[in-house]
Each structure stands twice: as C-alpha cells, then as structure tokens.
Amino acid sequence: MTATCIILDIGGVLEITPKTGWVQRWEERLELPLGTVSERMRDVWRAGSVGRISERDVHWEVAARLGLGAPQVEDFMADLWTEYLGTPNEELIAYVRGLRGSCRLGILSNSFVGARERETELYHFDELVEQIVYSHEIGVGKPDLRAFEAACASLDVRPESCLFIDDVAVNVEAAQAAGMQGHLFEDNARTITYIAAHLDAGPLVPGRVPL
C-alpha cells in the first residue's frame, strides 16, 4: 500500500485526439442544422460513457434518431471511433513503458462502450499498465471522486502515493481533492519531468512529514 503510483488518462494524453469535424460533416450530408447530432444523441453518448447501453443498442439509436440505414450507421460509428482513438502518443507511451517494474502503473479513462476492445487491439494499453479503469465499466466517470477511488482500489495503492495525469483541469482538481498529486498534461516534456520528480520523491509514509 506504499508503492509509488502513476495513473494516466488516455484521450489527450496517451492518445493524441484532435477534433476531426466528423459530426459537422454528417450534419451537412444529412442536411441537418448545426448541433442536431449532439442534441439528438446526447443521452445516448452519456449512457455509453457509463455503460448503461450496449454497442448494439447505440447502433440502433443512431439509426432511429438520425434516420440512417445499416451501412450508414457503420460509417457513422467508424468516424466516431476514428476521432475517439486518435493516434498513439508514442513518446509518452515509450517513457511509461520504461517505468514498468519501478512503480505501480494504471489508467483512468472517461470512456465509451467498446473502448477497451478497440484500444487493446490498437495500442495494447493492457500491456503498458497493470490496471485500466474505464468509466463505462464502473458506471461513473471523472471528475466524480468515486472514479479516482476505483482506480486506487484496482492498484491497491493509497491516493497520496499516486500522481494522476489528465489533459482536463477539472479532472486534475478532482484527483487532488481525492488526495492524489495531479498534473495537467500540456506536453510530453513537462509531463515526463513531473513524473520523474514524483518518482524521485518516493511514496509517502503515514506519519512522515514531507520535506
């Protein structure tokens, strides 16, 4: 329970995920007003992020709400996953890979139903870290404190021994509220420096006052 621990986000950290404009292209193709897809699908996206809907039912809802046939639904979801999965942040992934055995390693991700299978196939995050906690599998997402508690429990570590890295400020602030160290990801160089400093400091021990 005193091991030093690094927990990372996926999208925007381990994956580079710029906006691709796919939603707007579909709205143009379907001659829908700007914002229609988000308005019609908002509750489905939310349900998928906390595991309240299956992938099959997501496809059914897309078809019903946007008036798409089966081939169009497949194309629509392919565009969604292309943006969602982005490309691997090779430099950071390589650095984290080099940490294996020197600290506990985990992932905490706000996700969507189907993410584990796709990210495992593409990026092998299951081989990079010891535990991956997905919001769609635990039923709650960041910045809810229960998400951070679940990540710590999965690794059997204390929050104060963990450094959490995310590209969203409110999630970093929530991690700090949960008792973790937090770092807002902006670029690889600063993040790697911050991780190294955390590891050099070592795990906190109850009763020991940090210098």
Give an account of the 3D structure.
Keywords: Hydrolase. GO terms for molecular function: hydrolase activity. This is Hydrolase. InterPro entries: HAD-like_sf, HAD-SF_hydro_IA, HAD_sf, PGP-like_dom2. There is one protein chain. With 211 residues, this protein is an alpha/beta fold. The chain has two domains: 5-17 and 87-201, HAD superfamily/HAD-like (Rossmann fold, 3-Layer(aba) Sandwich); 22-85. It has eleven helices and seven strands. It has helices spanning 22-29, 36-49, 55-66, 70-85, 90-97, 115-123, 125-128, 135-138, 145-155, 169-177, 188-201, and strands at residues 5-8, 15-16, 87-88, 104-109, 131-134, 162-166, 181-184. α10 links the parallel β6 and β7. α2 (36-49) packs antiparallel against α3 and α3 packs across α4 (70-85).
Describe the secondary-structure layout:
Elements (H helix, E strand, L loop, with lengths): L4 E4 L6 E2 L5 H8 L6 H14 L5 H12 L3 H16 L1 E2 L1 H8 L6 E6 L5 H9 L1 H4 L2 E4 H4 L6 H11 L6 E5 L2 H9 L3 E4 L3 H14 L10
Parallel strand pairs: 1-4, 1-6, 4-5, 6-7
Antiparallel strand pairs: 2-3
Quick tags:
211 residues, alpha/beta, Rossmann fold, 2 domains, 5-stranded parallel β-sheet, 7 strands, disordered C terminus
CATH topology of the largest domain: Rossmann fold
- From the structure provided, what is the oligomeric state, counting identical versus distinct chains? single chain
Query: Spans of 5+ residues with little confidence (pLDDT < 50)?
Result: 205-211
Radius of gyration: 19 Å
Query: How many domains in all?
Result: 2
